Amino acid sequence: SCDFRHLNLQGLIASGLDFSNSYFRQADLRGIDFSQSISLRGASIHGAKISGVYFPASLTAEEINLSLQHGTRMRYKD
Q1: What are residue 38's phi and psi, to 5 degrees?
Q2: Is 9:27 a contact under the CB 8 Å cutoff?
Q3: Most exposed residue of 13, 33, 36, 72, measured as fewest CB within 10 angstroms of its CB?
């Protein structure tokens, strides 16, 4: 539940971190590997730079796109 708005997080090692309900509005997330993170459930990436980001397989492209464009909170598929 952290606020990462407008921060440059390039180079962040996200393995083992829990980003549940975090806010990444317009943050620079380029190149981050979130695949080994504990969770991105409820996180929002509205307007973030996500080129080269590796998201967990349980997050659909539709969920990621809705969050990126509209700021919705990401939900995992079961």
Answers
A1: -65, -45
A2: yes
A3: 13
- Kindly list the distances between the CA atom of residue 62 and the CA atoms of 6, 13, 18, 27, 35, in Å, as whole numbers in the listed order: 23, 25, 21, 20, 17
> Is the distance from CB of 14 to CB of 36 less than 8 angstroms?
yes
Q: Which two tokens stand for residue 16?
A: 């083992």
Q: How far apart are CA 72 and CA 42, in angstroms?
A: 8
Q: Which pair of tokens denotes residue 20?
A: 């549940």
Taking only the tens place, the pLDDT of each residue in 7-43 is 999 999 999 999 999 999 999 999 999 999 999 999 9
Contact indicator for 67, 44 with CB cutoff of 8 Å: yes
